[in-house]
Amino acid sequence: MNSQNKTSILPPIEGTLPVRRTPLSWEVSFYRSTVGKKIIVAATGFIGFAYVALHMLGNLLAFEGPARLNTYAAFLKSNGGLLWTARIALMVAVVLHIVMAYQLAWRCQKSRPIGYYRWRGIASTFASRTMRWSGPIIGFFIIYHLLHLTTGTVHPDFHPGDVYRNVVMGFHVWPVAVFYIVAMLALGLHMYHGVYSMFQSVGANHPQYNGLIRKLATCVTLAVVIGFISIPVAVLLNIIS
Ligand code: HEM
Q1: Range of 74's domain?
Q2: Which run of H or of E encompasses 164?
Q3: How many domains are there within the chain?
Q4: SS3 of 151, please?
Q5: Is the Cβ atom of 52 under 6 angstroms away from ligand 1?
Q6: How far apart are CA 3 and CA 25, in angstroms?
């Protein structure tokens, strides 16, 4: 849509200059609206969810031995252009997700400057009430995780290209394994509420289907969390060594 053609001049109020007003493009109106921000949070959350689910499935190759996991990791890195396109898309999605979520929380707080006299979370779940904690824990986890298993900066014995060895040696440090497990639980809480809310944001909100959507959110979350946690647990129990 060409917004220039729609520029209008408001009739001057006595004693003032005429005001030139350009209507906002639909993209800007969408971005500024609460519904638009919710849809952006849902769409970027879905991108993050898809990445996390695929990443978890790829990590399970660790149970098939070093050759399988390392060959898979090498394959993912074999096309530099594609790898960086996916990395940049993921980074943009994560940044948009955080910025929009903060703006929505800020708007919500501003709309109720005086808090509830007595607040009881009747319709909320533990997962929804902990979104503001689980989000930053995941953010911190991602930074640590990249320094741990991608760059090796905080890894005790990092060998570039030997992903299997890096995972096993990394989780032999038990506080690190415990931190991963705690972060995965936070991810589970965030994902459970996120998947449920994603349906609400796109309008799939009907008493008849809400129970089904909750069940779906529970199943996908459990699958992802158990899949991830199985790796540090398997290293600690010497199942993977
Ligand atoms: C037990 C859980 C996890 C394990 C064992 C694991 C394992 C790994 C490994 C080995 C790498 C480096 C791959 C390579 O250099 O080829 C990696 C990279 C990465 N992981 Fe994880 N991961 C886990 C959980 C997560 C979670 C929950 C997230 C997101 C919330 C995540 C996001 C990433 C990202 C963004 C990268 C960088 C990918 C790239 O190089 O572009 N990981 N992970």
Answers
A1: 27-113+122-236
A2: helix 163-171
A3: 1
A4: coil
A5: yes
A6: 6
Contact 134 CB / ligand 1 (< 6 Å): no
Beta carbons within 8 Å of 139's beta carbon, 6+ residues apart: 98
Ligand 1 center to 42 CA (angstroms): 22
CATH of residue 153: 1.20.1300
Q: Indicate which residue's Cα is closest to atom 16 of ligand 1.
A: 73
In a domain, 194, yes or no: yes
Q: Which of 145, 176, 191, 236 gets mutated to test ligand 1 (max ligand atoms within 8 A of its CB)?
A: 145
Instruction: Note the pTM of the prediction, 2 decimals.
Output: 0.86
End-to-end CA distance of the chain: 60
* Half-sphere exposure at residue 213, Cβ-oriented, CA atoms within 13 angstroms: 19
202 located within any domain = yes
Task: Please state, in angstroms and rounded to a whole number, the distance separating the CA atoms of residues 233 and 85.
Answer: 33
* Residue-wise pLDDT tens digits, 97-147: 999 999 998 887 777 666 666 655 555 677 677 888 899 999 999 999 999
Residue 218's alpha-carbon distances to 8, 46, 130, 190, in angstroms, are 52, 15, 16, 11
Query: How many whole angstroms from 22 Cα to the centroid of ligand 1?
Result: 46
